[in-house]
Amino acid sequence: MNAQRAQEIAESSTMVHVTCDGVPIYIQHVDPDSNTARIYPLDQPDKEETVSLNSLTEPSPFQTDGVHMNCATNRD
């Protein structure tokens, strides 16, 4: 994740789904100079840690959930 997006999420009043190694987390602070963020797991707010921004993932709205659509074409 880039520093600008991480900062937007940290400052947002809405909860944004972000994970670190597959664990849902909350971003407390972003340090763009060191490319790190202070985070904690949503279910363990006492487990704060500093991690590389590269370890943070925000799911793309374009990811699929295994559902596939086939569009029929007319071939005359």
Structural notes for this entry:
The chain contains 1 helix and 5 strands. It is mainly beta. It has a 5-stranded antiparallel sheet with strand order 4-3-2-1-5. It starts with a helix and ends in a 19-residue tail after the last strand. The model has no long low-confidence stretch (mean pLDDT 87).
**Rounded to an integer, what's the Rg over CA atoms?**
17 Å
Tell me the major beta sheet. Answer: 5 strands, antiparallel
Stretches with pLDDT under 50, minimum 5 residues: none
What is the β-strand count? Answer: 5
Strand numbers in spatial order across the main sheet:
4-3-2-1-5
Q: Proportion of β residues?
A: 25-35%
Output the number of helix runs.
1
Oligomer: single chain
Q: Structural class, please?
A: mainly beta
Measured between the Cα atoms of the first and last residue, the distance is: 48 Å
Output mean pLDDT: 87
Q: How would you sum up this structure in a few lines?
A:
This protein has 76 residues and is mainly β. It is 12% helix and 30% strand.
SSE blueprint and pairings:
Blueprint: H1 3-11, E1 19-20, E2 23-31, E3 36-41, E4 49-52, E5 56-57
Antiparallel strand pairs: 1-2, 1-5, 2-3, 3-4
Key traits:
single chain, 76 residues, mainly beta, five-stranded antiparallel sheet, 1 helix, 12% helix
